[in-house]
Amino acid sequence: MKQKIEEQAESLLLNNYEKYYRLAYSYAKNESDALDIVQESAYKVLKDIKKLKDQSLLSTWIYRIVINTSIDFLRKRNNETVSIYDLEIPHEDQYQDDDPKEMIAFLNEEERTIVILKFFEDLKLEEIADALNMNVNTVKTRLYRALKKIRVTLETEHV
Protein backbone atom coordinates (compact mmCIF):
# COMPACT_ATOMS: atom_id res chain seq x y z
CA MET A 1 0.00 0.00 0.00
CA LYS A 2 2.75 2.42 0.98
CA GLN A 3 4.67 1.63 -2.19
CA LYS A 4 1.57 2.26 -4.33
CA ILE A 5 0.89 5.76 -2.96
CA GLU A 6 4.55 6.68 -3.42
CA GLU A 7 4.38 5.51 -7.03
CA GLN A 8 1.18 7.51 -7.57
CA ALA A 9 2.83 10.60 -6.10
CA GLU A 10 5.89 10.18 -8.34
CA SER A 11 3.65 9.71 -11.36
CA LEU A 12 1.62 12.83 -10.55
CA LEU A 13 4.78 14.86 -9.99
CA LEU A 14 6.21 13.78 -13.34
CA ASN A 15 3.00 14.00 -15.37
CA ASN A 16 1.98 17.40 -13.98
CA TYR A 17 5.41 18.96 -13.73
CA GLU A 18 4.55 21.81 -16.09
CA LYS A 19 1.44 22.72 -14.08
CA TYR A 20 3.42 22.79 -10.85
CA TYR A 21 6.13 24.81 -12.56
CA ARG A 22 3.61 27.38 -13.86
CA LEU A 23 2.08 27.69 -10.42
CA ALA A 24 5.50 28.17 -8.80
CA TYR A 25 6.49 30.63 -11.54
CA SER A 26 3.38 32.70 -10.82
CA TYR A 27 4.82 33.31 -7.37
CA ALA A 28 8.56 33.42 -8.04
CA LYS A 29 8.43 35.36 -11.33
CA ASN A 30 11.61 33.77 -12.60
CA GLU A 31 12.57 30.41 -14.00
CA SER A 32 15.37 29.52 -11.61
CA ASP A 33 13.35 30.14 -8.46
CA ALA A 34 10.32 28.34 -9.90
CA LEU A 35 12.48 25.30 -10.64
CA ASP A 36 13.82 25.39 -7.07
CA ILE A 37 10.29 25.60 -5.69
CA VAL A 38 9.07 22.64 -7.74
CA GLN A 39 12.09 20.60 -6.73
CA GLU A 40 11.62 21.45 -3.04
CA SER A 41 7.89 20.69 -3.35
CA ALA A 42 8.59 17.28 -4.90
CA TYR A 43 11.01 16.51 -2.08
CA LYS A 44 8.39 17.48 0.52
CA VAL A 45 5.72 15.37 -1.21
CA LEU A 46 7.89 12.27 -1.26
CA LYS A 47 9.21 12.85 2.27
CA ASP A 48 5.78 13.47 3.81
CA ILE A 49 3.63 11.10 1.73
CA LYS A 50 3.10 8.98 4.87
CA LYS A 51 1.23 11.89 6.48
CA LEU A 52 -1.47 11.91 3.79
CA LYS A 53 -4.53 10.32 5.40
CA ASP A 54 -6.85 10.25 2.38
CA GLN A 55 -5.13 9.03 -0.77
CA SER A 56 -7.93 10.38 -2.96
CA LEU A 57 -6.69 13.89 -2.06
CA LEU A 58 -3.17 13.28 -3.36
CA SER A 59 -3.45 15.63 -6.34
CA THR A 60 -4.81 18.58 -4.37
CA TRP A 61 -2.39 17.86 -1.54
CA ILE A 62 0.48 18.31 -3.99
CA TYR A 63 -0.99 21.64 -5.17
CA ARG A 64 -1.21 22.78 -1.56
CA ILE A 65 2.44 21.87 -1.01
CA VAL A 66 3.51 23.79 -4.15
CA ILE A 67 1.53 26.86 -3.03
CA ASN A 68 2.91 26.75 0.52
CA THR A 69 6.46 26.09 -0.67
CA SER A 70 6.19 29.04 -3.06
CA ILE A 71 5.04 31.38 -0.31
CA ASP A 72 7.70 30.09 2.10
CA PHE A 73 10.38 30.51 -0.57
CA LEU A 74 9.40 34.12 -1.20
CA ARG A 75 9.22 34.90 2.50
CA LYS A 76 12.74 33.59 2.97
CA ARG A 77 14.03 35.40 -0.11
CA ASN A 78 12.40 38.70 0.67
CA ASN A 79 12.35 38.35 4.44
CA GLU A 80 8.86 39.84 4.42
CA THR A 81 5.25 38.76 4.20
CA VAL A 82 4.33 37.75 0.68
CA SER A 83 0.84 37.58 -0.68
CA ILE A 84 -0.65 36.24 -3.84
CA TYR A 85 -1.17 39.86 -4.97
CA ASP A 86 2.29 39.68 -6.53
CA LEU A 87 1.50 36.84 -8.92
CA GLU A 88 2.68 36.81 -12.48
CA ILE A 89 0.88 34.38 -14.75
CA PRO A 90 3.04 32.95 -17.57
CA HIS A 91 0.38 31.96 -20.11
CA GLU A 92 -0.27 32.48 -23.76
CA ASP A 93 -2.55 35.35 -24.72
CA GLN A 94 -5.93 33.79 -24.14
CA TYR A 95 -7.62 37.16 -24.27
CA GLN A 96 -6.78 39.19 -27.33
CA ASP A 97 -6.56 42.71 -25.94
CA ASP A 98 -6.86 41.96 -22.23
CA ASP A 99 -3.89 40.71 -20.29
CA PRO A 100 -5.03 37.99 -17.83
CA LYS A 101 -2.51 39.27 -15.27
CA GLU A 102 -4.14 42.69 -15.34
CA MET A 103 -7.63 41.21 -15.25
CA ILE A 104 -7.00 39.58 -11.86
CA ALA A 105 -4.46 42.01 -10.37
CA PHE A 106 -7.09 43.80 -8.28
CA LEU A 107 -8.62 40.65 -6.78
CA ASN A 108 -7.92 39.79 -3.17
CA GLU A 109 -5.55 36.97 -2.34
CA GLU A 110 -8.12 34.20 -2.01
CA GLU A 111 -10.10 35.24 -5.10
CA ARG A 112 -6.95 35.39 -7.20
CA THR A 113 -5.77 31.97 -6.04
CA ILE A 114 -9.14 30.44 -6.81
CA VAL A 115 -9.26 32.01 -10.29
CA ILE A 116 -5.74 30.79 -11.08
CA LEU A 117 -6.44 27.25 -9.93
CA LYS A 118 -9.80 27.12 -11.72
CA PHE A 119 -9.02 28.75 -15.05
CA PHE A 120 -5.27 28.48 -15.46
CA GLU A 121 -4.73 25.08 -13.85
CA ASP A 122 -8.16 23.58 -14.71
CA LEU A 123 -8.87 22.25 -11.23
CA LYS A 124 -12.41 21.33 -10.23
CA LEU A 125 -14.09 23.28 -7.44
CA GLU A 126 -13.78 20.30 -5.11
CA GLU A 127 -10.05 20.07 -5.82
CA ILE A 128 -9.61 23.79 -5.18
CA ALA A 129 -11.51 23.47 -1.91
CA ASP A 130 -9.25 20.61 -0.84
CA ALA A 131 -6.07 22.42 -1.92
CA LEU A 132 -7.04 25.58 -0.04
CA ASN A 133 -8.65 23.79 2.89
CA MET A 134 -12.00 25.50 2.27
CA ASN A 135 -15.61 24.47 1.94
CA VAL A 136 -16.73 23.97 -1.69
CA ASN A 137 -19.52 26.53 -1.25
CA THR A 138 -16.98 29.08 -0.02
CA VAL A 139 -14.87 28.46 -3.11
CA LYS A 140 -17.94 28.89 -5.33
CA THR A 141 -18.92 32.13 -3.63
CA ARG A 142 -15.44 33.60 -3.89
CA LEU A 143 -15.09 32.47 -7.50
CA TYR A 144 -18.39 34.08 -8.51
CA ARG A 145 -17.50 37.24 -6.61
CA ALA A 146 -14.14 37.36 -8.41
CA LEU A 147 -15.73 36.80 -11.81
CA LYS A 148 -18.25 39.55 -11.13
CA LYS A 149 -15.42 41.94 -10.21
CA ILE A 150 -13.57 41.03 -13.40
CA ARG A 151 -16.69 41.50 -15.53
CA VAL A 152 -17.50 44.88 -13.98
CA THR A 153 -13.90 46.02 -14.45
CA LEU A 154 -13.85 44.89 -18.09
CA GLU A 155 -17.19 46.55 -18.82
CA THR A 156 -15.99 49.79 -17.25
CA GLU A 157 -12.72 49.75 -19.21
CA HIS A 158 -14.36 48.96 -22.54
CA VAL A 159 -17.18 51.50 -22.38
Automatic annotation (TrEMBL):
Lineage: Bacteria, Bacillati, Bacillota, Clostridia, Lachnospirales
Similarity comment: Belongs to the sigma-70 factor family. ECF subfamily.
GO molecular function, one term: DNA binding
Entry keywords, A to Z: Sigma factor, Transcription, Transcription regulation
PANTHER family noted in UniProt: RNA POLYMERASE ECF-TYPE SIGMA FACTO (PTHR43133), RNA POLYMERASE SIGMA FACTOR SIGV (PTHR43133:SF60)
Biological process, per Gene Ontology: DNA-templated transcription initiation
Coiled coil: none
Residue span(s) of domain RNA polymerase sigma-70 region: 16-78
Keyword hit for Transcription regulation: yes
Record-given protein name: RNA polymerase sigma (SigV) subunit
Chain ranges of the RNA polymerase sigma factor 70 region 4 type domain: 102-150
Database matches in InterPro entries: RNA_pol_sigma-70-like, RNA_pol_sigma-70_dom, RNA_pol_sigma70_r2, RNA_pol_sigma70_r4_t2, RNA_pol_sigma_r2, RNA_pol_sigma_r3/r4-like, WH-like_DNA-bd_sf
Superkingdom classification of source: Bacteria
This protein's record includes keyword Transcription: yes
